[in-house]
Amino acid sequence: MALNTLSGRFLVLTTVFVVLAEFAILLPGLSNFREDYLLSRLERAQIASLALLTTDQMIDADLEEELLANAGVFNVVLRRDAVRQLVLSSPIPSPVVATYDLREDMVWHKIRDALAVLVDPENHVIRVIGDPVQRGGLVIEVTMETGDLRVAMIDYGLRLLMLSAAIAILLAVLLFAAMRRLVLQPISGVVRKVAAYAEAPEDARRFIDPTARIVELRVAEEAISSMQHQLTAALKQKERLAQLGQAVAKISHDLRNILTTAQLFADRMEDSDDPSVQRAAPKLMNSIGRAVNLCETTLAFGKAEEPPPTLSRFNLADLAAEVVEGEQPPADAAEIDFVTDIAPGLRIMADHEQMYRVISNLVRNARQAIAATGAPGTIEIGAGETASEWWIRVQDTGPGLPERAKERLFQPFSGGTRKGGTGLGLAISAELVRGHGGRLELVRSDSDGTEFQVHLPKSAGEA
């Protein structure tokens, strides 16, 4: 099991916590055992001293030595009635190196003293002070060696370590198994589902179905599922755009030939003596020429991307008048007034044909929105400039855009507002404006109408 996996790291953490738990159990246990051991020595020494107290301080030397040996001490001092008495005594093999008062030791001090006994292999003589049992006096103190205490503590520590280790290992195994079953396996399942989806992202059957019982994992599944739906939808949209590009290229090829023939006939119309035909012929020639140019551009690139703009300086009011003339509604349609608010001398630096398409798309959308209501309306084209940019405004008095259309306004096949519409007009216009370094934005859209603004930076035109 590799350490860089969740299972490996969880196993390492479990092992570390088990070791810490061992120390947390072992150290207080050894401290308590040492204290109990010393208290038992004090109790046995007090019992041994009772033999002397019942014989009026007279006892045989051999019996005294035997009592001290059974108690495991060298001497016993018992303080009764504020008088300190040496009750039992024997020769001490070495000086006393430390004194421990069991009445006042703190927990940390007890643990420290227990560790000191364990790490010191030398057999020292110590003095131990405590309270007598059964109110047998005020204070009792004994002197004893640490060798037997150390041996007993080691034996007890090994037994405690083995028992606690067995319990800790069992708990660690159960915890690891539970975490692997409840957390690691569900995560592995999500990873497998994501990998399966990556192999065929178009297959909707491979979407993750959020079923996890763990809240955090279920939230992750829901987020991944939402991402999968959006990604698959985006892939399908791109596929539709690719298919559309191929279809447009084929249509453009045939349409170019048809328009070229129409252009030849339109050329002959210029020789007509009819004044109305002479007025309409140049406009017809411009429209056909623009259509032919668009077809050739599509064929040249072989896809739906727009070419970089060819910048030139032109009069914006003339362009707006040309758009208005081309977007006039039929005679039997609802009455729509076109208002142009552009200074006659305003000239901008941009691609003339692309700006025509941008404004024409915006005006056409406004005209269709008003026509759908069957009521009269107004479309206004305004423009101006600041020190850093030119702006063009197209607003109408139509019914406004629905909320669904606002969410994906400039996305192909998503921002259509009328039945049968593709939503390509705004997407194309936004792309053309971005090609100029500018932006197309929706200023407002409510029951009073809709307003779009085009912003073209002057720096791009100067460059």
TrEMBL record:
InterPro entries given in the database record: HATPase_C_sf, HATPase_dom, His_kinase_dom, HisK_dim/P_dom, HisK_dim/P_sf, Sig_transdc_His_kin-like_C
Gene3D superfamilies tied to this protein: 1.10.287.130, Histidine kinase-like ATPase, C-terminal domain
Pfam families hit by this protein: HATPase_c, HisKA
Domain Histidine kinase: residue ranges: 250-460
A single GO molecular function term of this UniProt record: ATP binding
Source taxon at top rank: Bacteria
This enzyme's EC code(s): 2.7.13.3
Catalytic activity annotation: ATP + protein L-histidine = ADP + protein N-phospho-L-histidine
CDD domains: HATPase, HisKA
Enzyme kind, highest EC tier: transferase
Keyword Transmembrane helix: yes
Membrane-traversing stretches: 6-27, 160-179
UniProt keyword annotations, A-Z: ATP-binding, Kinase, Membrane, Nucleotide-binding, Phosphoprotein, Transferase, Transmembrane, Transmembrane helix, Two-component regulatory system
The protein's name in its UniProt record: histidine kinase
Source organism: Pseudothioclava arenosa
Lineage: Bacteria, Pseudomonadati, Pseudomonadota, Alphaproteobacteria, Rhodobacterales
